[in-house]
Amino acid sequence: MELFRKVQALPEYLQVSGGTKGVYDSDNQFFSTKSLGDECQVGAFHFQLPDGRKTYTIRLTQVATINPEILLEYVQGKREREDHVTTVLTAFNVAIRMGLMEKYPLYNRNSFFIREAESRGFRDRKYEGLEMWRGFFQSIRPVMGKMIINIDVSTGVVVKGGPLIAMALQFFKQPVTNLQFLANLSPRDKQALERFLRGVKFVTNEAPDARPSSIKSLTSVSAENYKFKNDAGKEMSIAQYNREKGTPLRYPKLPCVEKIGQSRAVYPMEHCTVRAQLLPKQVEADQINDVLQFSTLKPHIRLQRIREGFQFLEYSQNQYLRDFGISVDPNPLRLEARVLMPPELQYNG
């Protein structure tokens, strides 16, 4: 997402786009309401991040032109649902998400989770590294004669982030000074900690701005006993490697972290920092009651939370929506409804 923000600020992009902002779905689709011109059927944009460590190239290839008017024909009942209708809906849904993805980094496909909206911790102290955050689900949907945005509240379990060692000690309800506990984990405790940490994203102190890696497991031996071969083919331990680099480990008796990936890479725990992120797996059985209590709302409170969510969704201030010509009525849609009488049931025992 950061890369596409920088692309749209480049002079060469502004020249062909006229300053109109396109939207990106975080995968491989980019939508723009302005043609980038025939000369930009295949456009390559080159730039560096501020630290100058790497040059990036993003290539845009025009693959189709879509006409939003087919959506109007669809909601008026003049057209069947087809691929073009789905594509327009996709573009509109990306447009309503784009500004929020820039502002609130914790999100999934249709929901954004915002600590300022509401948050709560778990009762069990071993989950001090986790919080429940209130979020907002949003999705553009066609109905008879119009388009609506379906908004609801949602709940996300968030890893708060911080030094990996501190998070591991919190899990065992140990003070942050009790490093000896982590150095002498029993097989059962090691397995429990691995289960808690598996899939959690982290960065290292050496490359804090690099793409985060995901935790796979913990090594069964400490950093001073875990051996590998360096580029010269010399076998050495993780602790020895860091000493020779001039950055000796403070806690060489702690296990190391192995990341998920094709190539096996191992890092000392003290070099690892967990980024704030959505929990990448289902909650444990002993967390379910807390999540249900936080997420279950009475109808009038749910509606109030949805109304409050408009200050975070900021549809009226969203430049991407303005460029796409989308405006949103902040008032909920009111519908006539009636309660149906339940059918009578007959039962013969």
From TrEMBL:
Coiled-coil portions: none
Highest taxon of source: Eukaryota
Family annotation (Pfam families): ArgoL1 (PF08699), ArgoL2 (PF16488), ArgoN (PF16486), PAZ (PF02170)
GO molecular function, one term: RNA binding
PAZ domain segment(s): 177-276
InterPro entries per record: ArgoL1, ArgoL2, Argonaute_N, PAZ_dom, PAZ_dom_sf
Name of the protein this chain belongs to: PAZ domain-containing protein
